[in-house]
Amino acid sequence: MRLLDDLPRCKLAEGPLWDADGFLYWVDIVGHAIHRHEPATGAVATHALDEVVGFCAVMADGGAGGTRLAAGSGAARLGRGFGEPGGPRELARPPMPSGTRFNDGKCDPRGRLWAGTMHIEARRDRAPDGALYRWQGGSLEVVEPRVSLANGLGWSPAGDILYFSDTHAGTVWAYPYDLATGGVGRRRAFAEVPLEEGVPDGLAVDASGRVTVAIWRGGKLAVFAPDGTREADIPVPVRNPTSCAFGGGDLRTLYVTTMPSSNEDDERSGRLFATAVAVPGLPSARMDPTL
């Protein structure tokens, strides 16, 4: 796994997203920034914000282009000029428990946005006051309440299963998914990570249906078969990988975001890594604001 040392070091890198236009996006949550990298040219652009940013999603052309993001407790949109001054325009601020913020989000294969929340002082001994939201009809609605710490999202190749990491529960859940409506069925535990090994964070699904999960505090990615069997581990050179995404023109590059830890004096932490994979990932969908 190679270090992408030409990219910015982050305080908390998260939410990598490969867009079909050849850009890699990711956020620095507590660094208050969205980064965009074009591997073909080496160009890097940054849009600074004045609050935490939980995730970003590229909007479809029908939504006037631009980038949608969740900053703090509000959903907002940047214009076409990524990185231009003036800040994002707020679109929605859903009612959320005090002290909670967005933490991760992703679009389903149809472009329907899903996003999760967490308490800013998230601990295993806190009441689960996060939630999983779905963007529907121009607003965010709660689909799964009482989430400990919302993290990775992904869909099976057929779009009939939604995967969701509830980090402090140590569990990746799987929901039957209706792609036409965005409806979910009764969840089941897809994969569980022992606490002594770390906790499940962001995830990505490949074309064969395997689910790759970042193991925060575990220094690795865990790869699960579609039936939940753990197939392999991919070592990461730092302790806290936070998420992963398939990218590159053939979707055979796995990008990994990381964050520093208090007991880790390593300049590589907080940076991005990449590794080649044999099985391509699934393409990321752009957000369709009409859904």
Describe, in plain words, how this protein is organized in 3D.
The protein is an all-beta fold and 291 residues long. It has one domain: TolB, C-terminal domain (Neuraminidase, 6 Propeller), CATH 2.120.10.30. The chain has strands at 2-3, 13-19, 23-28, 33-38, 43-48, 53-58, 67-71, 74-78, 89-92, 100-107, 113-119, 130-136, 139-147, 150-155, 161-166, 171-178, 183-184, 188-192, 199-205, 211-216, 220-224, 230-235, 241-247, 253-258, 273-276. Strands 14, 15, 16, 17 and 18 form a five-stranded antiparallel β-sheet that branches. Strands 1-25-24-23 form a four-stranded antiparallel β-sheet, with no helix packed on it. It is globular and about 45 Å long. The mean pLDDT is 91.
Number of helices: 0
Structural class: mainly beta
Estimate the strand proportion: over 45%
The count of strands amounts to 25
- Measured on Cα atoms, how large is the radius of gyration? 17 Å
By CATH's scheme, which homologous superfamily applies?
A: TolB, C-terminal domain
Q: What percent of the residues sit in helical stretches (DSSP H or I)?
A: under 10%
Q: Give the CATH topology.
A: Neuraminidase
CATH architecture: 6 Propeller
Q: What spatial form do the alpha-carbon principal axes imply? A: globular
Query: Which runs of at least 5 residues are low in confidence (pLDDT < 50)?
Result: none
Output mean pLDDT: 91
- Measured between the Cα atoms of the first and last residue, the distance is 38 Å
| Largest β sheet strand count, sense and barrel closure | 5 strands, antiparallel
Number of domains: 1
N to C succession of SSEs: EEEEEEEEEEEEEEEEEEEEEEEEE
> Regarding CATH, which class?
Mainly Beta
